[in-house]
Design goal:
mainly alpha
């Protein structure tokens, strides 16, 4: 007769539970990881036009190409990662909607609290710097850089200067009224 101690039983049960949990985890899609990937896709998709104004070249030339080269591959990869098609599409749509809402909020409230033309000019500079940094980060990203592409430092600097001058003229006109 083999004697089994309580400790051996606890260890055996614990090992069995860990094996079961590990197996269940391996079968569970990484929703958090895919949500982050969809947020990156949304940042790229919603930033492309503005980044083009900041001197970057786009890796796609039409809305149809955005869907075929950016959106569809992201959803397909999530499906291969175990996410249901409808859930993957909903996650991506939600990420794009959230990104657009965040951009609208920032745009609408960038000038909150400004009292003078100088304050307004500072708020405008902050917005321009935000977009310049965002576009540069997207272009530097291994994924984002396939869609938001650096041109040359000179072209990007010239576009940034142009955006600053345009904003300065808008701010000057606004503070005169």
């Amino acid at each position: 007769m083999v004697r089994i101690s309580k400790r051996q039983i606890v260890v055996a049960v614990g090992a069995t539970l860990l094996a079961a949990i590990g197996s269940a985890r391996a079968d569970t899609p990484d929703y958090v990881g895919w949500a982050e990937q969809f947020r990156l896709v949304a940042r790229v998709e919603t930033s492309m036009r503005t980044c083009e104004n900041f001197g970057y070249r786009m890796g796609v030339s039409s809305p149809k190409e955005i869907v075929s080269r950016l959106v569809n591959p992201a959803v397909s990869a999530a499906i291969r990662g175990g996410i249901d098609r409808k859930i993957a599409q909903a996650m991506l749509l939600d990420a794009v909607k959230t990104e657009r809402e965040n951009q609208m909020f920032v745009s609408r409230h960038a000038a909150d609290g400004t009292r003078t033309g100088t304050d307004l000019d500072a708020a405008a500079t902050t917005m321009i710097d935000y977009w310049a940094q965002r576009c540069s980060e997207l272009a530097d990203d291994p994924f984002g850089g396939r869609f938001v592409i650096h041109t040359s430092p000179e072209a990007e600097a010239a576009a940034l200067q142009h955006e600053r001058e345009m904003m300065s003229r808008i701010v000057s006109r606004g503070s005169q009224h």
